[in-house]
Amino acid sequence: MIEPFEDGQVRGDVISYGLSSYGYDIRVADEFRIFTNVYAATVDPKAFDERSFVRWQADTCIVPPNSFALARSVEYFRIPRSVLTLCVGKSTYARCFSADTRVALVDGSAPTLEEMAERSQDAASFWGYSIGSFGRIIVTKLEAPRFIGRDALLEIGLDSGEHIRCTADHKFLLRDGTLAPAEELRSGSSLMPLYRELVRGYESVYQPLNGHLLATHRLSDEWNVRNGLYRDIPGTHRHHRDLDRRNNNPWNIERVPAAEHVRLHNEKTYGPGFDHQAHGQAIRAGLKAYSEDPLWSLAYSAAQRDRALRFWTADDYDAARARLRQKHRASWTDERRLAKSESMKLFYQDPDERRRAAENSVRAWRNAPARRESQRELARSLRLRTAIDEESVRGALSRAGTIRGAARLLSCDRSVFRRFPRLMAEFRKRRSSLRNHRVETIRALPGEHDVYCLTVPEAGNFALEAGVFALNCGIIVNVTPFEPEWEGHVTLEISNTTPLPAKIYANEGIAQVVFFESDEPCTISYADRGGKYQSQRGVTLPKV
Fold this sequence. Notes:
Layout lengths: L1 E2 L5 E2 L6 E3 L3 E13 L17 E5 L2 E4 L3 E12 L4 E7 L1 H4 L2 E2 L14 H8 L5 E6 L5 E15 L2 E5 L4 E4 L4 E3 L5 E3 L8 E2 L4 E4 L2 E5 L6 E3 H11 L9 E5 L12 E5 H13 L5 H16 L2 H6 L2 H12 L3 H15 L2 H16 L1 H16 L2 H15 L6 H11 L2 H7 L11 H12 L4 E8 L4 E7 L5 E3 L5 E3 L3 E4 L8 E10 L5 E4 L3 E9 L8 H4 L15
Helix pairs in contact: 5-7, 12-13
């Protein structure tokens, strides 16, 4: 049935091949045809142009980034009439994870690789997080989640309590930007982190390169612009189509005019038919009342207060506001912003300036007895809200990701949280520790396990729900199933889906063949039909 045949697994310094539990690992021969676009020839399955390929015969073959090569198996097969054979790529080239490994997606979900493989059969699309070419986290499309085969796994335990199960050669991104296979990780190794927080209900991603948070929907918007779905038009806002702030799939992000975006969210907050003009008048009335507060007399001159009152009470308020905004934008040049930034730094670095600012604040509150009394009443009412307990505060902090956001969710002042000093200390400590994930334990798992992986053509890596980044499967081996009574050398299509060159080793394992035997022979076999690929010997191109 197989010639030449190895009745066991050949290992050592080679990629394993030979008989396995329920199949056979085949080898790739030393003759290749590497795709090239030098002559701009079309890859036509009905009429392959020989100029599309470069012939190559050697012990190794380099498949260019995002390209492919054709090859053949060393083994010659003769399939029995009652057997159907499927062929999948070896995990050595795939670098795989256990089936229950969860992947971080930008819509807030974290399906397992096995679930993603099943959903991909129904043409589902997935977007996740990757480290881009400049060390910045970006949104990328995750493609071809699939079952690879069975293999031995390592289990990596992280200081976060998460565990990752993967093949020994699967490479991870370290905190310093380098790569290391799982088998070379040690206790204390720092991995490139994925940290996500909620800011005003929107997810933001911690950028390891500069330590800043960046909204995920902005990264998805960048993906749309990068892929030509729309242009980066000034004066527009990024909008979630379904109004779900956590669903950051690129198809859910669109650009809308700023005024329309405000109207959409006002209608969501206040209901349809919301009177924007009346709302604006109410805001102006409130601002006018605020300007008459005694605090203003300390902070602003009479001339400044008069100008503000004229502005807020003007009949053409909208037009005045638009003119002011345009004037403001024109005045804030890059040089002025830099100068303002430097002056603010100098101000806050001067202890005398800080002391004077504090004294002004004390005098302002001392001269505003009505405001002090209103704050006392607010504090008294807060103490009566027994529903704001430690559990509700912990839940709000988890949902919002910030103290300000949690207070907004609970409709209370941030000062309420002072009643829970231990909880606040834990929250601040957790936020301050967001720097990197560390490996704590590594152990080999007994036996062989189902392994899965996926492909990220744009970046070559993706983030797991465990909060770390790993390289994706680089090599996909495509083979048509071996039908009953087919015989010949197997023609292999070896696709390199990464942005890096991939090396293939001739006369070593390349794919795993799995056999399915029927209770009875088939009615019509491949030989009965006179199949056009019967008894093929070398690398065989498609025939019509």
